[in-house]
Design a protein that fits this description.
Keywords: Membrane, Transmembrane, Transmembrane helix. This protein is α+β, with helices and mostly antiparallel strands. The protein has one domain: Deoxyribonuclease I, Chain A. It contains two helices and nine strands.
Length: about 130
């Protein structure tokens, strides 16, 4: 994963990079507001995704700044996050919901297309932005 930013707008300090996420401290050069951003990716395996949730839950316990966690979560939060294909069962939502409750993160509202992935017959919302209210 690569991230690029305009240094006239933001200054980013990369705090940690792992195979499933990149964690940064971001400062807006205009407003001087500081927040943390964690970009997640490659969370296709359930056991690896659970390890990611556990680590980010520990990380979240020490965060006192505004925090956003965003990227390709490759899992569902609500039944309406998938259209077509096999019906979703409740256990598919459990891990992400538990992670969000443990870290006080909420799903940010978005505009544009609701679904972020399709194969033509199945539509899914797999990418999202989560945020806290510190």
């Amino acid at each position: 994963m690569g991230l690029f930013w305009d240094t006239n707008q933001v200054i980013c300090d990369v705090l940690e990079v792992r195979d499933q996420y990149m964690h940064l401290r971001v400062r807006c050069t205009v407003t001087q507001q500081v927040f943390l951003a964690t970009f997640v990716y490659h969370v296709y395996n359930v056991s690896r995704r659970r390890n990611l949730w556990e680590y980010l839950t520990l990380l979240g316990a020490s965060i006192t700044l505004p925090w956003i966690v965003l990227g390709d979560f490759n899992c569902f939060l609500f039944p309406q996050d998938k259209r077509g294909g096999q019906a979703l069962t409740a256990y598919l939502f459990h891990d992400l919901q538990e992670f969000m409750m443990a870290t006080s993160l909420v799903d940010a509202s978005s505009s544009g297309s609701f679904y972020t992935w399709t194969n033509g017959s199945i539509w899914s919302k797999l990418d999202r932005v989560l945020m806290n209210f510190v």
